[in-house]
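Hey, resending since the last one bounced:
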Amino acid sequence: MTDYKIPTAIEAAVVTRLYEHAGRKRWTHLQDADRTRLYQEWTDDPDIGGRLITFLGQPANIRPWIKDGPMKEYERSRRGLGKYAQYVQQQAATLEEIIERSLGDEWKIVSGSKKLKPIRATVRRVDREDEELHFVTGQASQFKHLVWPAILDRSNGETAPWTICVVDPFLNPLTREQKAEHARLAKFLGVRVVYFDEM
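The structure tokens again:
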């Protein structure tokens, strides 16, 4: 993405408005056509596109900046991660909360192991220093990205267990077919798939 020189105050105001609007529209549950309409609304919005146009040069640059910048970071931002996290009004469960609710409070993140793309970390049992596993989480639509780190690990001969935690949203629950597909892939890869119910 082009590195535009957008003043910090302008970027903060624009991203705050984007995230507030995305939260109201339940962005994570929207179909592509609805997202496309929102990108156009945001481009035409004087408080979003109108503030960006001076720094992005032309209207055609606004949508890509929004899509490849703040909205690409939206899910991570909701979970308190990344450069735009401070602009989220409707926070989602953090990685720590997802781990605790999925595995139990005896599992803690190993210091320095947290990564963002996809959201993952190495976790260790607090009562057993030698028991560790890799934990990755995200939406079902990102499933291929969630399994990729485990595939790379296995291809390099690593044997540490992987738990793939798929967020199962209350408003748009996963189907039996989706879960069956996950189960087949998990068995094939030798990983564990769990689900995190999110309101």
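The two ends are 33 Å apart (CA to CA).

Sorry for the duplicate.
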